[in-house]
Fold these 3 entries.
Entry 1:
Amino acid sequence: MRKTFLFVLVSTFLFSSMEITLKMAGSVFNPIQLNFIRFLIGGLVLLPLAIRSMRIHHLRLDRSALLGFALTGLLCVIVSMTLFQLAVVYGKASIVAVLFSSNPVFALIFSYLILHEKLSRTNLLSVLVSTVGLIMIINPFHLSAPVGMILAVGSAITFGFYSIISRKISQNQGFDGVTMTCFTFILGSLELAFVMALSHLPFVGALMGQSALAKDFVNMPFFAGISSQTILMILYIGIGVTGAGFATYFIAMERSDVSTASLVFFIKPALAPIMALFILGESIAVNTLVGIAIILVGSTISFLGQRSTEQKNTMATDDYLDTVEAEGEVADKAAQAQLVADRKALAAKKAALQSKVAATNYAKRNETN
C-alpha cells in the first residue's frame, strides 16, 4: 500500500507542476509545437506498458482500434490540450490548473448524456458544488484575463467529453487505461503534425489574420528552439509530466482502485496554485482561494461517493462469492449424500443378487441329488 501512495504522490507532483513548466516553456516554444512534442514523447514513454498490457490480454491493433484512437487523439491532443496550452499562455498557470482539474465534473455530465449512466445524489451534489467554485474563481462580474479562463474552461469541458468517449471505446475494444492513453497520445501527435504541416501553406496565414491568437497557428515549427538550454525542460515535460505522470497514475489505479488514484486530482487544485506562487510568483486572489476551497469540497463529496460505491460493489461481490461458496458446499454435501445412498443401494442390489444366485445353486444341487 505504501508503494501505491508513493505512485499517487509522484503523479500528483508531476501533474501539479504541469501548468507551471508549460508556462515557462511557453516563452521559448510555440504552444502548438509544445503540445506536439510532449504528447509524442509521452506516448512513446507509455508504449512499453501498453504493449505489455496488450500481450497479457491478447489484444491487437486492428482498423477499428486505430480509428478509435484517431478519434480520441483528435479530441484529447488537438482539441482539449490545444485549448489547455493556449490557456496556460494567455492566463495564470494557477487558475488554469484549478479550472482544468474540474474536468471530472463535466465527465459526469457527459456520462449521463452519452452513456446514460445514472447521476447519484453525491455526484449531482459534487457537480453543483464544483460549479459554484468555478463561478467563484471566474468571477464573471469582475473578469480579469477572460481569454485564459475561457480557454481553460473549454479545455476542461472537452477533456471531460474525451474521457467519456475514451471510456466507451475502451469498453468496446477491451483496452485498459494505459493502452488507451498511449495510442491516443501517439495518434493525436501524428494528427497534430499534419495540422502543423498545413500551417506552412501560404493561404493559411491569410485566412488566420493578424490577431495575437491567430499567429500561434501560422508556420508552426516542429522542433525549433530545442537546444542544450531547453532540452532538460522538454524532457521533463515529455518524459516526466506527460509520460511518467500518466504511467504512475495508471499503476496506482492498477494496484488499488479508481478512487485512490483519483486523489491526484483531489490534491492538485490545492497544490498547483501554491507551486505557482513560489515558482512563478503568481498571486492568489481571495475569490480564487474561496473557489479552490469550494472545488475541494466538491471533489471530497465525489471522492467519498466513489469510495462508498466501490465499497458497496466490493461487499456485493463478496456476498455473491460467499453465497456461491455456501451453495457449492450445500451442493457438495448433497452430492456426497447421494453418492453414499447410491453405494448403499448398489450394495443392497449386489447382496440380493448374490442371495438369489446362492438360492438357485442350492436348488440345482437338491434336484441333482
Entry 2:
Amino acid sequence: MHFAQYYLDCLSQASYLIGDETTGRAVLVDPRRDIDDYLHDAEAAGLRIELVIETHIHADFLSGHLELARATDAAIAFGEAAQTGFPIRRLKDGERISLGADDAEGVTLTALATPGHTLESICLVIREHPDDEVPFGVLTGDTLFVGDVGRPDLLSAAGHSPHDMAARLYRSLHTKLLALPDATRVFPAHGAGSACGRSLSTETSSTIGDQRRLNYALQPMPEADFVRLVTAGQPATPGYFAHDAALNRDGHPLLDPRPPAALTLDEALAARDRQGAVLLDCRPSAAYTRAHLAGSLHTSLDTRFAEYAGSVVAPGTPVVLIADPGTEQEARLRLARIGYDRVLGHLSDPAAVLERTPALTRRSRRVRHDELALEQPQPQPADAAATAGAPAPGAPATEAPAPNAPATGIQLIDVRNPSEYEAGALPGARNIPLAGLSQHLTELDPARPVVLYCRSGGRSVIAAALLEARGFGDVCDVVGGYEAVVAAVG
C-alpha cells in the first residue's frame, strides 16, 4: 500500500493519497486546489488517481476536487447526503472501495456515514487487505481530530441547530469510530490552529485507543453532557467560511496558476479608487508597523495569512498585494486556497514606494505593556465585557499616548477567541474576535480611542489595520499582547 499525508501548516489542513502498488489504482482524499504535488508523487509511485473523495463539504478552504477531476479524469465522491452542483459518486454507509484487482484482494476503503460536523460527513477506514481484522487507519475528516472533535455549529445558518448536530456527532463517534480497534491509526483533516475545532493537537495522527483515553470529548459521558461540552467555547467563524462552503458545494473556477501582474503605485491606487480593490499588505508585521500605505489592510505571510485575510477582506473583493519582492505568487496562491481569486496584481518594490511617498505613508501606533495603566489581568466572564467604541479619523500616526482605560474612556478590545478571553482578560476589555470584527465595527464609537490586544501581538496588528482602513484615526495595539502584560505583572 502507498499512503501519504500532505499537511499544509498555514491552513492546518491534511490531505491523503492512498494507492495499491500492485494495481497502481489510487484515491485522493480532501485535496487542496494546488495539485501539482499530488500529481508528481502519484506519477513517481506509478499510481493512477481514479477517485477524489471529500470527507465533507469543506468551509475553511477551497478544495481541489474539480482541479483533480480535470487533470486526471477521476470521479468525485462525497457522502450520500451531499448535495452538489456537479456530478458526484455518492458513498453509502458501509460501502467498500477496492483498489485491488478484485474485491477479494488489495487495498480497501470503507465509507462510514458520520454526520455531526456536517450532514454529509464521512470517515474512511483503510485496510491493506480486505480481511484485515485491525485496519491500517481511519481518515476521520472533521468528525474526529487529535485531541478534539468537529465543531457542530457551522450549519446553524442553514437551520440545523448546533445541539441537534452535536447529538448526531455523539452517535457517530460512539457507534462508528469508537467501535474500531484501539490500534487503528487516526488521520484527521485538520490540526492545531484550525477554526474547525476548539483545542486540536499539534500532532497530525494518533490511534483510536489514545483518543479514547486522552480526548476530552470522548470520555464517558451522557449524550446531553457531550452536547453541552462541544457547543460551548468554539472559536469565532472566519467570514469566508460560508463563501467557501458554497463554492465547494456548487462548483468554482479552476485555479489560475499565473503570477500576479506588477503594478505601479498609480495603478494600485486606481484599482482601489475605481474598482473597490483592497490594498493587502502581506509583509512581516514589523515592516508593516514601521511604514505602510494609508488605508491598507494587513496580514503577514508568516502567520495564518489566508485565514486572517478571509477575516478582514470580504469574499469577492478585488485585491492588490503589497508584498516583499519574490513573495507575491505565494500570497496569491494562499489566497486562492480559500477561494479569493480576484487578485488584480502586486505593487512593485513597496519599500521604495513607501520611502518616496511619505505623504501616503503611515506608522502604526503601538503601546508597551508598561504603558498600560490597568489593574491585574483577571478571568473575565463572556457577558461581563466592557462596551466597545472607537476613535476619530485622522492624520499620520505617531507614537500612541500611554492609555488608561478608566481615566480616558479608551475602548479596550480583546480580539482573541472566546475561550482565550474567558480564561483571562484585561480588566474592562470587550471581546470581539478578529474573525467577527468587521461585522461589529458599527458598535464602536469613532469619537473615542481604541486599544486592541490579542495573545502575543499578531492578531491585534491585523485588527488595528482594519480599523485604520475604516477611518478610525486613534487606534493602537499592545506589543506582545496579553502574554506580555501577564508576564510583566506576574
Entry 3:
Amino acid sequence: MTKARVGSVRPLWPELVGRAGERARIEAAVTDAGCRLVLIDGEPGVGKTRLLEHLVERAHAAGRTVLAGSATEFERLVPFGMYVDAFTQLSDGTPGADDLAEAALRTLLSAGAADQGQLDRYHTYRGIRALLTHLAADHGTVLALDDLHWADTPSLELTEFLLRRPPAAGFLLAIACRSSVIPPVVCDAVARRDPRVIRLSVAPLDEDAAASLMPSDVDPRRRRLMYRVSGGNPLFLQALLDAGDTTLAELADGRPGATLALEQTLLAVLRRELDQLTPTGRRAAHAAAVAGELASLVVISHVAELDAATAAAAIDELCRQGLGTLAGARFAFRHPLVRAAAYDTCGASWRVAAHARVADYLRRNDGSLALLAHHTERCAEHGDEQAARTLADAGIAYLNSAPATAARLLREALRVLPERDDLVPYRGQLLTGLARGTGVMGSLAESRRILHEVIHLPHDVASAAVAFSSVISRMLGQLDEARALVSAQTRRAGQDRRVRAQLLVELAAVAMLRADPDSARQHALEAVGLVSKTTDPALAAAAYALLALACLQDGDITAARTHSRRAGCLMDSASDTALVPHVELVAPLSWSEISFQRPADAARHLARGIDLSTMSGRSYAMPYLLIVQARQEARAGRLTEAIDIAEHAVAASEYIQSSETLAMARCVMLLPVLWRDGVRPAMTLADQIAAAGPGSAWWQAMAYVSVARVHLASGRAEPGYPLPSVLSRDTEVERLAVQSIRAGAEGDVGTALARSAAAIETADGLAYHLGTAYDARARALCGRDDLAGAAAAAQIAAERFGESGAVVERGLAHQLLATIYGRMGDAAPCRAEIGRAKAAYKESGADWLAGQLARVERQLAARGPRHAARETALTTRERQVAELVSQGLTNREVAERLQVSQKTVETHVARIFSKFDVRSRVALARRLAGQGDLPAIG
C-alpha cells in the first residue's frame, strides 16, 4: 500500500522516545509463543506505526517469519488489499518463503480474476490459515497489520477468521489502528481479557519526552508552545517544526483555525509543505497519490504525463523535502495523511483523468483486476462499454468472496453500460449477479425486485434469475409465487441439462415445503436423472437430499434412507466451491440424517454448511441451516445450545427480513424453552407463532404440534394453532399423539385410545415416532385405568426415545412410568424411574421439568403405597359421579342426571376427592384422564 511499509522504511524518529513500557510488553509478546494478539491503538500520529515497526524488528531478531501489510483510505474498496501487501513483501524479502508467498498471493488475487467467479471466502480463508500455520511451524510467524481501520471488508473478515480460528501455536497477530474505530472482532478479543491478548493504548508523549524530539536550539518558550499545540503527538510535532511563531500562537490561543481537529490542522500544514514544491514536484506528488501502491517511477511518469528524466527529478525532490521515500522502485509517502493532502489538492477533474491513465496502464500491462476496477470506478462515464465490462468482471468475480463490493461494482457497471439492444442479455446477467449479491447481504425484497427485471428475458439469462427468485420467495413464505415462476420456466424450451436440473431441484424444494411429497418426489427424481449425466456432485447431492425428504414425508422409509446416504456421500465428495451455490440444501439432508439416527453425519454436514454459508456470505442460507442444527441439539438434549442456535436463526431471519424462517426458528425453539424455562415464556413464544406462523404447510403441521404441546403443559385444552389442511405422513404421528393426549385431558378416553393406536400404526418403524406414539398410548391407557398396559407402553416409549437419542423425551417417558408405578403402589420401580428422569433432565438442562418432577416426587412420597388402594376403591355410584364431574357438570346437574339429591352428590364428591387425594374438579378430571401428576407434555 502507499503508506511507508512496516519494517521497510527508516522510521521518522530513530529512537522510541518515552515508550519504555510499551517496548517491554512488545518484547514479552514476541518471545512468548503463547501470545496470540497485540493491539496497538491510539490517535493519528501518536506513534502506532513506529511501535509496530519495533515489534517487527524484534520479531526479525527473534528469528520469526514476518509478514507486514498496511491499509490506506484510498484503496479500502480493493478486496484483501492489506493481505496482498503482506504476502508481496514476504515474497520480495524472505529467503525460502517465495513459494508459500506466491501460493498465498494466487489464492488472494484469484478472487479478482474474471474466470474465478465461484471462489468462496471459506476456501480463501482456509488456504491463508493453512499457509500461516506452515510458516509458524519452525520459529513462529508474526502478521503485522497497520491501519486496520482503513482495511477493506474482506480483509477485516479474514482477520476475524484468523482471530476466531487462529493458526497453530507460534502465530502472533499484531494490529495497529485508531482507538475510535477498532473493529468489533478485535474489541471482542480484548474484552474477553484473554492473557494471550496484549493491548497497548498509546498515549501522547509527556513534555520532557516531546522536548527530546525537538532541535536543541529551539528556545524554551517555543518548545512549550509547540508542545501545547501538538498535545504531545509526535507526528504533529514534526509537522509543526517549521511553523512560524504567529501560526503557533494562533493555534495555541484559540484564534481562527484553532477549532480544527488535530488531523485537519496537520493536513493544513502538509498542504503548505506541498505548496513549497515546484510545479513539477507537485504534479509528481499528485500522480503518486492517485497511483497508490502502483507508484513506481514508470507509473508516476505515465500518470503525471512527464518524461522519465523529469519524473525522476521530481521524485528526488519529494524525497529531499521529506514527503516520502523510495522503497525499491516504488515511492511511498511518509504517512497516509501526506498522501491525503496530495490527493485532496490535485484538482477534481485532473484526478479523474489521472485515474483513467492508471486504468489504461493496468490494462496495457495485464494488471490486477482488483486495482483496475478500483481506478475504473473513479473515472468511468456512461456509455463506456469497456469500463462497464471491467467493473462487471470484477463484480461477478467478487460475488462469493466480497458480496458488498460485488454489488457496488455491478451497480456502477449497470450505470455505465450503454443502452443498446445487443447488450440486453448481458445487462440481464449483471442484474442477476446484482440480485445475488443483494440477496446474499440480506436484502431479500430488493433482490426479488431486481430479479423481476430479468425473468422475462431470453431463457438462458432468465433461468438463473427464476431459480434464485424462487429461493427468495420461499424465504418470504410465498410458495405459490415460487412454484408458478419455476414451473413456467421449466416449460420453456432450450435449457441444458444442468439448468433444467437446477430448476427441478428448486421445484422439489417448494413442493416439499407445501407438504406435497408426490410432486417433490417426481421433480427430484427427474433432476437426479438429468444431473447423473453431468459432473456436478453438489447439484446431485441437493437432488438426492430433497428426494430423501420427499420419501420421508411420503412414509417410504426404506427409499428415504437410501437416498439420504447417497446424498451424504455426494456432498462429502463435492468441493467447497461446488457446494456453495447449493449450501442451503445441506439442511434437508441433515434433517433426514437426524430422523434416521445418524447424528454424527448430520452434525458434520451442518458444520460444513454453516462454515460455507458464513464464509461465502450466503446469509439467506444461514437460517435454514441453524434451524436444523437447533433441532438436532434439542433432540440430543442440549437445550441451552438449541435455544442459543435458534435465537441465532431468529436474528439471521430478521436480518434478511425472512418471515418464513423467522416463524420456523421460533417453532424449533418452542419446546426447548418450555422444558428449560417453563410455561410462561413458552406461551409468549407460542402466541408469537400463532400470530405469525409459517406459510408452508409442512412447517404449519410442526407449529401445530409444538404449540399444542405447550398448551397442554399449561393446562389449556384449546389447540392454540390451526391444523393445516394439507399434511404429510412424517408429521402425522406427532399430530395424532397430540390429539390423543388432548382428548384424554378432556375426558374422551375412547378418542384418546383410537388416536394413539393410529399413531403407532403410522410410525413406520422410526424410533422417535414410535416413542411419541407409545407415550400417547400410555397416557390413554392411564385414562382407562389400564395401568399395567400403560406401564408397558411407557416402557416402550422410553426405550424408543433412548434409541433415537431424544434425551428429554426419554426423561418424560421415565417420569410417566414413575407416575404409573406410583398409582399402582409399586414404590421401588417408582423411585427408580424418578431417578432416571432426574438424570435425563440434569443431562439436558431441563430445569423446569426438573422442578415439576420434584413436585411430583413429593406428592407420590406423601401418598405412599395406600394411594393406589384408595384410588381404586370407588363404588359404582362414585365412579358415575366422578366421570360426570370431570366432564364439567355442576353438582346440581349431576343430581338431575342421576336422579339423586344434590346433597348426596356433594357427599360423593367429597369422598371421591379424598380417595383420589385431589383438591379440585380439574385435578380430578386429569386423574381420570390418566393425567393427574403425569409429566408435562413436551
